[in-house]
Hints:
The chain is an alpha/beta fold. The chain has a single domain, classed as P-loop containing nucleotide triphosphate hydrolases (Rossmann fold), CATH 3.40.50.300.
Amino acid sequence: MLFDGVDLRLNVGDSVAVMGPSGSGKSTLISCALGLVKPEGVVRVADSDLGLMRRRERTRHRSRHIGVVFQFGELLPELTPLENVALAGLLAGADRKETYKTASELLGSLGVPRHNRPTGTLSGGERQRTAVARALVNQPSLLLADEPTGALDDTNRSAVAELLFDVPRRWPCALLVVTHDAQVAALADDTVHLVDGRLIPQETR
Length: 205
Ligand SMILES: Nc1ncnc2c1ncn2[C@@H]1O[C@H](COP(=O)(O)OP(=O)(O)OP(=O)(O)O)[C@@H](O)[C@H]1O
Ligand SMILES: [Mg+2]
């Protein structure tokens, strides 16, 4: 059994970092929050129990309430940043004009330069800013990030980490970041350590 009594709650405005060594279950924890892995316990997102939903309902709930940022951005390299961000809105069923407007505003406020270059030609830092914008386009109440700075150099790592932990102060959502990077985790309101399937608060270690 990977987890043993994991209890984690986040309210809008909160940021929590989960640290743990490789293989401790950080990515699996993200998968549980996304409803991609069904643990024995209960996972509630935006007041609804993911385990009680049918697959389609869970997919809709996920796209409406959860945004995710991955280690390598997972953007489509041929599309521009604007197209990448807007696509996530369109796939969730949003109005085309509205989505492009929201996408453009988000990219602006997250500091992605305005241009029509394919995303694949941007710097790693710009790509991760784009990935954050994409995660926010559907106004999620929960933002998840799995090693969001793992592929960046030192300068971009601090810039993207600061921008990410600023999100719950600027938009009404909660942020859960899993990372093995203590400097990144230090920016969170709370840090917990995933050890032998349990979450240990930072201060009691
Ligand atoms: N659905 C699952 N059920 C049970 N165990 C799983 C499942 N998926 C992955 N595992 C195993 O759980 C362990 C934790 O994997 P996970 O990818 O969550 O670790 P991680 O903390 O994200 O590691 P890393 O820092 O390397 O990304 C691994 O041993 C993995 O093989
Ligand atoms: Mg992982």
